[in-house]
Structure formats: C-alpha cells, structure tokens
Amino acid sequence: MQHAVLPPTPTGRGLTVERLSRFEDGADLAALVWRAGPGWRMVSSAVLGGGLGERLWVLNAQVHHGYRRVDPAEHLKELAAAAGLAGDGVGLMTAADVEAHTRADDGGVEAVVTAGIEVRGWAAAPAVPAPAAVPPTGPRAFAPGTINVVAAVPVPLSDAALVNAVATAVEAKVQALVEAGLDCSGTPTDAICVASRLPRPGEEPHSFAGPRSLWGARLARAVHGAVLDAVT
Q1: CA neighbours within 13 Å on the CB side: how many for 147?
Q2: Which residue in 48, 82, 146, 191 is deepest, having the highest Cβ count within 10 Å?
C-alpha cells in the first residue's frame, strides 16, 4: 500500500510584525510593520501597493477615528518613509487598535489580524443612495469598523492561486464572524493581503489555494483562528 506524503511544514516565523508609534491628530497612534524583504509576491486590496506583484513590506497603520485626509495613499507613503521602508510595499489603514492584533498559524501559514467591528453589515445589503456630499475617498472611507487580514504562505503560488487564496481567506473570515455570533460578513472597509514565496529555480508554483487544497486549507484555518480571536 502506498501512503500519501504531504509536503514538509516549513518552520520558523516568517510573518514577524513590529510595533511603531507616532503622535498625530492629537492622539497616540500605532502601526504594525512586517519587513518581509525580498522573495515575496503579494496580492492585496490595499489602498497603497494593492494588486499583485513583488512587495518588500506591509504597513498596517492606525488612524484617528475622525480621519479627515482624502489622500490615504500619500499618507501611507509618508508613514512608510518615516519607518524607513523603501521599495514597493503594501499599506493598509484602520481605526481599530492595532496593538490588539491577533495572530494564528497552521502548518507554516501565518495570519495577523486587526479588527474593528463597530461599522459592520452584510456584503449583499439593499442598495441605498450614497450621500452626495461625501466623496468615496473621504473621511468615511476609514470608519472604526475595519478588519485587516495579512497572511503569509511559505510556498510559491501561481497568479490564479493567489486570487484563490484571497477568496479562501475571506470565506474563513466570514465563517469566524458568523461563529462569533456577529450579524455580518464584514465591514465596508475590510482589506486583505496574502503573500507567497517566490519560486526557487526549478520549483513550480502551486496552482490551487481553495479551502480543500493543502495550502488553502492551512490558510483558511490560520485566518479563521486569528479573526475569531480578534472579534471575541
């Protein structure tokens, strides 16, 4: 009888975050930084460095609840420069307390989550007219309710698998919210970043990251655990 052999589980923590602090808008604010360095491809919905490509760092910056700037990408660039972050990276924002971040790992996949759920709801909510006086990039774009998910998969994933990984992580987030007894699928400003290792010479990227694939399942469990801890 032949036995299935699973790929080895990478050891060591790749997603190591450090805390930064600053005084802004009359308040002490914090940020989390992952100085990933070279060797990572990331897919993200972030306002800075979103899309898909090689990225060197991830910055998750806390902003004041009454955030008024209408140039969040420029603001994040300023914060990144102040933190000594060079090159291409991913910048996220939240009014949630980033010092209360949670993390979980499963089989080498790691997830770090910051969560504020004051402003939450279901994705397929009934249509309502948008207030004409508030532009889409205005102050309400960063309300206190924001769930930011940053996850790292220690193997290479194809472009399609990275997109698949985003879907898997979001499904796991929603599962955690429902299990926590929250009447929502998320908040209007949730953001995500999933990183995967660049392939080594001769190494083929994994083609799938759905919840029943090896690495997708690990990703789902890590995100689920971190989100559940963050909202309970």
Answers
A1: 28
A2: 146
3-state helix, strand, coil in the chain (%, to 5): 25, 30, 45
Taking the C-alpha atoms of residue 79 and residue 82, their distance in angstroms, rounded to an integer, is 5
CB 68 within 8 A of CB 78: no
Average pLDDT over residues 157-161: 98
The amino acid at 150: V
**What does the pLDDT look like over 189-223, one tens digit per residue?**
999 999 999 999 999 999 999 999 999 999 999 99
Residue with the two structure tokens 């990703």: 219
Residue 225, helix vs strand vs coil: helix
Closest CA to 153 of 165, 167, 163: 165
The 51-54 sheet, strands edge to edge: 51-54, 40-44, 191-197, 147-153, 109-115, 102-106
Query: Per residue, what are the HEC states of 29-90?
Result: EEEEEECCCCCEEEEECCCECCEEEECCCEEEEECCCCCCCCCHHHHHHHHHHHCCCCCCCE
Residues in the chain: 232
pLDDT digits (tens, 9 = 90+) for 81-139: 999 999 999 999 999 999 999 999 999 999 999 999 988 999 999 997 765 554 444 44
Please state the pTM of the whole predicted model: 0.89
